[in-house]
Amino acid sequence: MENFNVLGKKIDEWKNEYPLIDDMISTREVFWTNPLYGNKQKDPSRPITKKDIQDAEARLARFAPLIMKAFPETEKSNGIIESPLEFIPNMQKRLSELCGVNIPGKLCAKFDSHLPISGSIKARGGVYEVLYLAESIAMEHTNLSWTDDYSILKNDSFRELFSQYTIVVGSTGNLGLSIGIMGAALGFRVVVHMSVDAKQWKKDMLRSKGVTVVEHTADYSKAVEAGRKEAEKDSKSFFIDDESSRHLFLGYAVAAKRLERQLQNLNIVVDEEHPLIVYLPCGVGGGPGGVTFGLKSIFKDNVHCFFAEPTHSPAMLLGLMTGLHEKIAAQDFGIDNRTDADGLAVGRPSGLVGRILERDIAGVYTVQDDQLYLLLKMLADSENKFLEPSALAGFFGPVQLMTTQSGREFVMERNLLHKMSRATQITWATGGSMVPKTEMDKFYRQGVAVTEKMGNSSILRKA
Ligand SMILES: *Cc1c(COP(=O)(O)O)cnc(C)c1O
Fold this sequence. Notes:
Layout: E1 5-6, E2 9-10, H1 11-17, H2 20-25, E3 31-33, H3 50-70, E4 85-87, H4 89-99, E5 106-111, H5 122-141, H6 156-162, E6 166-171, H7 174-186, E7 189-194, H8 200-208, E8 212-215, H9 220-232, E9 237-240, H10 246-265, E10 276-281, H11 286-299, E11 303-310, H12 315-322, H13 351-356, E12 361-367, H14 369-383, H15 397-403, H16 405-413, E13 424-429, H17 437-454
Parallel strand pairs: 5-13, 6-7, 6-9, 7-8, 10-11, 10-13, 11-12
Antiparallel strand pairs: 1-2, 3-12, 4-5
The protein binds pyridoxal-5'-phosphate (PLP).
Pyridoxal-5'-phosphate binds near residues 388, 430 and 431.
């Protein structure tokens, strides 16, 4: 490779400063641990507080009667949009066998794939931001009060009010789905700018709900930019900014409080002797970032959160490692940002998330697409759970923590080795239940093909 210039520095200088960049450019899997992790010397910028998460949780509770009415599938949970946390012992056994190392502790999955409304983690952030907007508009223009039964927001007078406003968003797919479905249910006009990699069925589903879908031939960042420009032209347009929205972030953060209760219900203790390790697929960073922020505010040093990215889209990894956050992108290094992992096909990370969490993210690792398909098939066979490829990125984490050199060093240095057998490890299964069966069958067949090609040993293959 020629010695080209990136952000004013020669590629060789980058490699000297950050040796991992060589592997990243060659799209080899890496496991990076964050040298700033747990550093309490300098207070990072904290534009968001624990109190903000409580407010967000209270807002979601106010909307529960409305959600229950608009989405009958939420009746069981009284209008609270939540997903199950489950042990996955068969998957744990398969993973242990294949990587030849015991995956210690209890392995669980958090099945956001099965969240009501839009079947992905975006049903947290995206739905929350639409509700926040609806409440602000209603408060400004009607005499709605916090103590009202919010199911009245489904009445014609409110729909009429909301129909005067447009919500605009740029998305690789899932964010568009959650905002489109929720926005349309309340009567908003919704315009979703979709990147080139967005799936046809997602566009079709949105259009069937009356959402305007604008298709772009460029990637995610360009779709977001187009959305932002469009919204600026109209004072009754709101642009939902996946790259730096605090409302999205707060919607995701509420997940941590719900998880705390679920852990209690499963009699899982988290304390100094019983660490919690969480693996979160990362696109722009809002979803995993919000969850991490929430978890850190509850469990402090007893929880460790790792982010997972495709080898072709290591956005957050680049941003955190260099400290340049949104000023650096995978494409700057010629990394192509092409991956089957829809929600993760992001080249430039959120600066908001990176800055808030630069001392709270334990590390970031990358995964090849083939590995995602392999894990997809493995989870389907062992636990009968079907996820979209992105959602499998977290399942690679427990393997990498135990088998990579940097993973093992992390375990040693953080004094976790003797505690691992008492640890709980959670892989965040971020999406999949809305994927049409024909598409899911294709994913599974791809998993079969990859498994045959690699004889299952790919999980052992080290960068
Ligand atoms: C969006 C998404 C993510 C990651 O969330 P970000 O906020 O983009 O980091 C992970 N998995 C799936 C399935 C997603 O749709």
